[in-house]
């Protein structure tokens, strides 16, 4: 079932406005990318991100998702990034270069406001207009959030980018340490004991 978004003035990019929606769903292009690829079709390193050659979704849709998350509770920018990453099971995390301009636009269009600020760290809350926008688009937003959950469930745990990153960090740290010619027998014993202990703890999770 397709849901239509009702975008407030200022939500669309110019290229979004020119993009036809006929036969392509309510977002101007398939949710999963330019060719409609599902997230399990490509790995995290595939060009264009983990969801194929296109973006995860268009900018206007991302703005509504960000607005919906802020309407749930006031959030900082980095909290929004983490929330989206968690809701997709680590399958997708928007970059700071995407989220912070989105927050700026939402603020400029009166959808959110700064509740408090410490230096560059701003806590955003939804305005009455923003909450009205969320309610007007509730069904469509819920459909996107459902896709988030689906994206996370489709991914095999060992391919989770968070685990991949952690394993690579461990490998790099171990390689740099063991390549040192100054390691003493006691240090080698300590490293081996630490790795064995880590393995046991992982098995117990």
Structural class: mainly alpha
Question: Which fold name is given in CATH as the topology of the largest domain?
Answer: Arc Repressor Mutant, subunit A
CATH secondary-structure class of the largest domain: Mainly Alpha
Number of strands: 2
Beta-strand fraction estimate: 5-15%
- Overall shape: elongated
User: What is the ordering of alpha helices and beta strands?
Assistant: HHHHEEHHHH
Biased composition (Basic and acidic residues): 10-20, 32-43
InterPro entries: Tscrpt_reg_PadR_N, WH-like_DNA-bd_sf, WH_DNA-bd_sf
Domain Transcription regulator PadR N-terminal: 66-135
Pfam family, one: PadR
SSE blueprint and pairings:
Blueprint: H1 14-18, H2 59-72, H3 77-87, H4 96-108, E1 112-118, E2 121-126, H5 128-136, H6 138-154, H7 161-178, H8 185-204
Helix pairs in contact: 2-4, 2-5, 3-4
Question: Keywords, please?
Answer:
mainly alpha, 2 domains, 205 residues, Arc Repressor Mutant, subunit A, 8 helices
Provide a quick synopsis of the model.
This is Transcriptional regulator, PadR family. The protein is about 50% helix and about 5% strand.
Folded structure, characterized:
Residues 66-135 form the Transcription regulator PadR N-terminal domain. Residues 1-51 are annotated as: Disordered. It holds the Pfam family PadR. Residues 10-20, 32-43 have a biased composition (Basic and acidic residues). The protein is built from 8 helices and 2 strands. The longest helix is centred in the last third of the chain and has 20 residues, at 185-204. It folds into 2 domains: 14-156, Arc Repressor Mutant, subunit A (Orthogonal Bundle); 161-204. The protein has helices at residues 14-18, 59-72, 77-87, 96-108, 128-136, 138-154, 161-178, 185-204; strands at residues 112-118, 121-126. The chain has a two-stranded antiparallel ribbon with strand order 1-2. Helix 2 (59-72) packs across helix 4 (96-108), helix 2 (59-72) packs across helix 5 (128-136) and helix 3 (77-87) packs across helix 4 (96-108). The protein starts with 13 loop residues before the first helix and ends with a helix. It is elongated, with a radius of gyration of 21 Å.
